[in-house]
Amino acid sequence: MKKILMSLLTGLLVQISIAQTLDKMQWFNEPEKWEVKNNTLSINVTPQSDYWRISHYGFTVDDAPFLYGTYGGEFEVKIKISGDYKVRFDQSGLMLRIDHENYIKAGIEFVDGKYNISTVVTHKTSDWSVITLEEPVSYLWIKAVRRLDAVEVFYSFDDKNYVMMRNAWLQDNCPVMVGLMGACPDGNGFNAKFENFSVKHLPDQRRLKWLKENAE
Description:
This protein is mainly beta. Helix content is 12%, strand content 53%. The radius of gyration is 18 Å and the shape is globular.
């Protein structure tokens, strides 16, 4: 019986691992050229594509490549990103999306000849915040932690020391599309790479509090 239980558990863990691999995820706005190899996604980002709603510019676009899986509850997600950014607003990063009016995207964005660590938060309309880097970077780690109705977004240059760049509201108790995004609003496309994508389940805080208060 013990061997049977261990076998079932091993099979379950394998299924969980497979479910988080990139080749099992879905495309929203699939680009013409992309490849998954050794759990690394390489894409040629679609020209003239982006995610933005209304504010400041007066237009809405929702047509950039996004490879995602759907997750419920509370979780931590992170990704290593890199790209040969060329023209204004070339960007790649992580996105958490409920629908076309509610999403968070964060990563590297190329603006005025400099690399910027960028976050766009959209609820009906979009806002944009940036941290300008004085020197280009070969890659960047982006991490997001969803807890209750908030998402904390972090960046790191080494996957060890993380700095929080944004705390934003996101509706809790509903599924979220989580994955990898690239956009090229002004240019003719560029190559982006996404490595070491991982999602880690976090126990629900309200439930943990209830269990503590109602312990036998």
